[in-house]
Amino acid sequence: MARTFDKIKIVACILAASFWFAPAIAQNISTGCGKDMQQRHKQFLDELGKKNFYSKASTDKQASDELILWLQAANSRIVKHENAHKSTAGKWGGEITYLTFKWWGIEYATAGCVPYKSGIPLNTLIRAQLAPDRPSAHDQNSAAKVQQFIKIKKARAECLLIRRKSHLAGEKCLKPYKAYKWLDRYPLD
Ligand SMILES: [Zn+2]
User: Fold this and answer.
1) With 80 as the cut, is the pLDDT of residue 10 above it?
2) How many independent structural domains does the chain possess?
3) For residue 160, how far is its CA from the centre of ligand 1 (angstroms)?
4) For residue 86, how far is its CA from the centre of ligand 1 (angstroms)?
5) N or C: which end of the chain has fewer CB within 10 A?
6) Cα(31) to centroid(ligand 1), Å
C-alpha cells in the first residue's frame, strides 16, 4: 500500500515560520500552518488508502484512471481553497505552499498553506481565514481566536484611555491584558 506514497516536502514549515506572525501571536493563534498542513496531508493519504481504486491502480487501467480523476478533483479543490485565502489576504498573503502526492510522475496537491505576513490587520486575517467555500477546522479555529484578540485589543485601547486620566486606574485595567501588548502591532483594519 505504501509503495507509491511520495516523500513529503517539508518546505512549508520553515517558510511559514518566517512569515507567520511574531512569536507571541504564533503561540496564541497557531504554531504555524506547517503542522496543520501535514496533518491534512496525512488525512488525505489515509482517505486515499481506503479507496478501492487505489489498491488496484497499479495493475488496473480503469482503476488508475479513476485514481487520476480523484486526484485531479482534490487538487483543484485544494488550489481553489488556498487561492481564496491568498487573494483575500491581498498583500499580506505570502506564497502558497503545497504538499503533494505523486502518481505517474505528476504531483497532485494534498494540502496547502498560505502564510500571512506579520502586521496583517486582524479583520483582514479573519476574512482571509474564512474566505474559502469550506473553511477547514483549522481556518475556523484561528478565525475565532483572532476574534478574541480583537476583543482584547479593544479592551486594551479603553484601558489606555483610562490611563490618560488616571495612571493607577489605567494600569490596573491593563493588568489582565499584560501579555497582549504585541497586539499593538496588528491594526484592526
Ligand atoms: Zn484553509
Assistant:
1) no
2) 1
3) 35
4) 10
5) C
6) 15
